[in-house]
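Q: Here's a chain of 85 amino acids. Please give me its 3D structure as tokens.
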Amino acid sequence: MKNSAKATILRIQIKRQNVVSVDLKFPIFTLSMMESFIPEKAQAYLNKSSIDLPNILKRIEDSQYAPQTVLNFDHEEKQFSIWIE
């Protein structure tokens, strides 16, 4: 039987030197506004990198919001982890 669990929470965690400095939970519908949660400097980094946020969001939609990692990346001294659960 196929697992039909859908994520209901968007999690955003930011670490600095492996210490959690930000740990946020949002309702899943805020995933569509996720870009507004990423600081400008990190957004610029994403735009220059090979990370295609619209494609990632499409993949999540296509999976019918199955729990999964959205993004993991390091920028300057911070580690960003974004996932849905």
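Q: Can you summarize the key feature?
A: The mean pLDDT is 89.
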